[in-house]
Amino acid sequence: MNTLAIAVFAQLVSVPDRAVVAEEYRSKIVVDVSAMHSATVAEARRAMFERKYQALVKAMNAFAEKYNDSKGNTWPVKEVEAVRKAFRDLEKLEPGFESARR
Predict the structure, then answer these.
(1) Is the pTM of this model over 0.85?
(2) Taking the C-alpha atoms of 19, 25, 28 and 32 in order, what is their torsion angle to the nearest 10 degrees?
(3) Total of domains in the chain
(4) Would you say residue 60 lies in a domain?
(5) Is residue 39 domain-resident?
(6) Using CA atoms, how far apart are residues 19 and 40, in angstroms rounded to an integer?
(7) Residue 54 forms part of a structural domain
(8) Are the C-beta atoms of residues 56 and 92 closer than 8 Å to each other?
């Protein structure tokens, strides 16, 4: 009888340890998934920034080409608006980029 009580007691004592170990594994998994999510979000934000930045560069190049073709005699309004839009789109991604005029 004494041996049976010791065995049952050992199992009862070890159950919380298993629960603690299981909880530690769960928390580690949550942390790992959270870190992966953060990395994915950061990569997505970077990719979006790169696309918006490239759109701004493309708009500025179009403006420069039209302006230089006219030898500075014509202000290419359509291209200026495209540059403004591309710049605003880039500003919207990061609040710190917004111009001081607002």
Answers:
(1) no
(2) -140
(3) 1
(4) yes
(5) yes
(6) 31
(7) yes
(8) no
